[in-house]
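Worked example

This section walks through a single chain of length 358. The input is the sequence exactly as stored; nothing has been trimmed or padded.
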Amino acid sequence: MKEPPPERIGKYPVVREIGRGATSVVYLARDTFAGRDVAIKVIRNRAPEDTDLQRRYRRVFLNEAALTGKLLHPHILAIYDAVSDPDASYIVMEYIDGHTLQDFCDQASMLPLSKVVEIIFKCSLALAFAHRQGVIHCDIKPANILVKEGTHIKISDFGAAQYDEADHTQIKGIGSPAYMSPEQVQDRELTHQTDIYSLGVVMYQLLTGKLPHNASNRGSLLYQTVNIDPLPPSAYRKDLPPELDLVVMRAMQKKLEDRYQTWGDFSKELTFAYRNLELPADTISDTEKFDTIKALSFFVDFGDQEIWETLRITSWRKFLSEHAVKNITKPVRVYRVRTEKLEGKPPAKAAAAHKWLW
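Given that input, the structure is written out below as tokens.
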């Protein structure tokens, strides 16, 4: 019988249960001091005979708890607090009222191409930021990517992450085989390129509604991951532009030297692929906005987080230049950008951008 939720977890009043798995239960709660809803992941107590498994998952908990307050990025789920004691161990996280990408991995519920590219682009920026902080996620999959309001995403669950300041070796035996890189399957040393591979698999699934490898058991799946090249996404979706085929297949190359070497390389090719998609004339994606702002000299000292904060307070319009341009085969893209009225006390650089844009 399912037990009722507790009235409180630490200082947080509990609203309701919102999910549970083999090792944890997640509750919606209220942070009355900060005036916000939060999600609290509570590690469940297990029977004594599961001691080894419990020890492994406790390491996962401690791994994620150690990153509290360290990965502050618009597309990474924030961890506000962590408590570890014999009675209760839990992590207090940002609450997102949305779905995971798992909801869009079926052929009956696939997203438009433009949204897929934009989501993967945002994931690549978030994982590039994590890498600059010395963190490799090691468990990228649709269930660990939250999405709401179109393409607003948050990467979650850094429990299996590998990072520079960790006082333990890589956590093995944790992860989803369908999204593991060949080097992860073979227990080799991991770099950020393992996350590039896994994000390539996620992109493959979002574009086709299928995983790149079809296997009847775990052993066969792992063998294919290491030894068999999958069919390109266009084999299942004939309307797919060749640029997207190339991006996905390069991200999933088995040899590290053939895969994208940096997140920057991956992001640039995603941007190129996006610009070649046929979109409504008045469409301005977050990807396009981000690249446009980043190219302006005023924003040269802005980090990714500060640029996203600026985008949050802007409104955009796109129109053709009023000046005639000879010998040109494509329309000239001109943007009119204005910031909305600022509420409260915005970050300093966002406030400076507001003043500059006006």
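What to look for: DSSP finds ten helices and 13 strands in the chain.
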